[in-house]
Amino acid sequence: MVYSLSYRRPERQSISSSAASLSGDNKQKSIHESVKSGSSGMSHGIPEALSFDRIIAGGVCPPCTVRDFMNFLKYIELSAENLQFYLWFRDYSKRFNELPENERVLSPEWTGEKESHAEPTTNPKNVNSEAAALFKGTDFASDPKANESEKSGSNPFFTPPRTPTSVDRREGGDSVDSFDDSMTTGNTGKVNHTQRASGAFESAGLKWKPLTIQPYREEINRVISIYVADGGSRQLNLSSKERTALLHALQSTTHPSAFRDVIATVEWSLRCQAHPNFIRWTICNGNRPRVIFARGLGIGGIVAGLLVAIILTLSTASRAWRVISLIGFFIGISTLIAAWKGMCVVLHGMHHRHLRPWELFTSDDEPQEPDMKMDSMDTLESHASSNSWEDEPWVARYEKRNIVRKIFDREVWIQEPALRQIQDTIFLQAILGALVMSAVAVGIFCAIPKGNYF
């Protein structure tokens, strides 16, 4: 179950922590200082142990890990590209800042849109023969070649693999992922990311082509092709103004500061919308059929208590016997309140939860219980180029399961202590609320004179 929330977008005042190491932070637009998970009105009630920063850092247990967050965005909210881009940017900023000074100086920090109208000081086509010979075989060659020792691994969370740098080569370039221009997007065949990136620049009215001698230029082209260009496999939901401003910045530099406005928008969406929804979704310990079944039991308990109270009221029995109806009211109301929050009280009694549909069929030969270490970004790999999942094998297999089997599906223990504490609080609130309402209902029936009909 997904709970819809209403939000009021706060004023941006500070840049994300992932870009905090960049100079000139005082010039950046970003997220309001109060918009931090666990302390802002956007995530009111979420404990610090389940904060956005803690989840991204890998400091939580299933079912609240980065992988669970990604699955929620992919299968429930259908917006996984935001987290994929955010994780890529964090990694990219770290790698860029670790470059030698003589490489970083080729991509100066982006300080404003006015730079986008200036012609590049160096045109790769006009590089003289001496410069071409100097750059030959390095990251700054005008026509860089793909890494021949490309490995099959890919960057986690479907993010673009990075381009090797001189630092990577000195530290063991064979382990670095390289780009693969044969990356496919569904049934459209091979995609030329450089050509698509060039088309994105042209659509934004930019005349100057990016400098190929800048570090990570090939990776930036792929990011533009996937996340920015129209028709990209994981195109971000950017306004026309944001998209144009980003392309203006990227035509001049590959410095992470070129993404400052876009990453602020993406991070705001993750922190203030996706993260609170994710935490509320994880509170639901049962699948939809189980929760509907629990609601039915709750209504049945209330109806049973009501029938008992009416029968005893109309009979010759003393008023004290009408207190028996409290049992039905209490069980029914407490079950209904918990189910309204997406919880099954039976599963909560064991601190269990149902496995999600995509978890049920991950492997027929391996245990289905999530591993605590699965929150590491290095453990998630996929060769898919988009977030489409409608054709995944588990979809058809889950639809074939009958309703009874779905209600009593496989369960797993909830490992995250903070989540169990939230569920305990909700369960206690359901108990207290049911006790008060049941007492009121029984009190009303006890005040009615007996009917003496039988």
TrEMBL record:
The chain crosses the membrane at residues 292-314, 326-350, 426-448. Residues 119-128, 181-193 have a biased composition (Polar residues). InterPro entries: RGS_sf (IPR036305), RGS_subdomain_2 (IPR044926). Keywords: Membrane, Transmembrane, Transmembrane helix. Residues 26-35, 107-118 have a biased composition (Basic and acidic residues). Residues 16-43, 107-128, 140-193 are annotated as: Disordered. The keyword Transmembrane applies. SUPFAM superfamilies: Regulator of G-protein signaling, RGS (SSF48097). Gene3D superfamilies: Regulator of G-protein Signalling 4, domain 2. This is RGS domain-containing protein. The lineage of its organism: Eukaryota, Fungi, Dikarya, Ascomycota, Pezizomycotina.
